[in-house]
Amino acid sequence: MSHAPTTAPVHRQAPAVLVLEDGRTFRGRAYGAEGTTLGEAVFATGMTGYQETITDPSYARQLVVQTAPHIGNTGVNADDAESRRIWVAGYVIRDAARRPSNWRSEQSLDDQLREQGIVGIEGVDTRAVTRHLRERGAMRAGIFSGPDAALPADRLLERVLAQPSMAGARLAEEVSIDEAYVVEPADHGWTGETVATVAALDLGIKAMTPRHFAQRGVRTVVLPAGATFDDVMAARPDGVFMSNGPGDPATADAQVELLRQVLDARVPFFGICFGNQILGRALGFGTYKLRYGHRGINQPVLDRRTGKVEITSQNHGFAVDAPLDGPVEAPAGRYGRVEVSHVCLNDDVVEGLACLDLPAFSVQYHPEAAAGPHDSAYLFDRFIDLMQAEKDRPGSRPGTDSTTQGEN
Hints:
Elements: E1 15-20, E2 25-32, E3 36-44, H1 50-54, E4 62-66, E5 70-71, E6 90-92, E7 95-96, H2 109-115, E8 119-122, H3 126-136, E9 139-145, H4 153-162, H5 172-175, E10 181-183, E11 196-201, H6 208-215, E12 218-223, H7 229-234, E13 239-242, H8 253-264, E14 269-272, H9 274-282, E15 286-303, E16 309-321, E17 328-329, E18 337-344, E19 350-355, E20 360-363, H10 378-392
Parallel strand pairs: 3-4, 4-6, 5-7, 6-8, 11-12, 11-13, 13-14, 14-20
Antiparallel strand pairs: 1-2, 1-9, 2-8, 3-9, 10-12, 15-16, 15-18, 17-18, 18-19, 19-20
């Protein structure tokens, strides 16, 4: 039986323009939905994983510039999405695939962007945009396509400058879930008894995180960003996890207070990305905005405890301000000693914190990376070991051993 060759649907491409807050403009063609979108322009250096990138909630309110020259080659599918929708505010690429070519493809990227109302631009010299942002820093920007692209440049710039900065933005609650849900180990092939139960605060959690836990026999109870300490403890957790997420950690006062209650109760804690920044704040350190952030799947990080260099996936525009020459006493006073456990080899940014007198640690990067390197997946095992060690400690909290709780 013969089949007629399939062709990609032809969409009219309207003119489009990317306008940066310093007045620099880049012209191209509409990609995805037509219209106007505003956000912070940032660049991501991953050569693969564009679907995982755009569905990462940490990119909320950001216009992502892909440095990889060809985007959309393999289409998109339901399995590779990291969350329930696309979160980027806008998408900037050089060359869009004319048609996807992959056996797993279910839809073209262009069509999915259009369906979800994500305004993008293609045909842009993304190398020039990236060099500009690298020299001048991430900045407010807008993508304007269709009739809006024909408006005078000064009017477009006014709209870009009228939007709020990412500094001071509180976004975790916007991307978080409304109701709790549970991911069981059996959902992902685990056939033994449940090893532990983790209460995970969804600040923009990616689907791969509870999957990594499940593959190791850990039940994950995922809670909304606004969960209270009582909500967390109702899950009878062996440990607490705080996820990645968007926005300024200086706005996360509620989560910082929740984590202090967790630390005071000596519940083991593991945080990544936004969770790392919240641990830093809970311990009394400050946070600050990076010039252009770390976004990509090739960031070198030194584990100062082992001397090993890991190639990591990262996506953050803020960092913890902690001394590299530790250990030091936590500024908050009651949490004992803490040290910077990991550091970025590109710029000495803090990439991890470890409490020495409490069962708590965090990293700034993404050990659950998909697509991306898997050098850091061992951190999930480290957390399991930490939870087990705390359960085995004399005088530990009673009644939290998940193996005695039965299956839900």
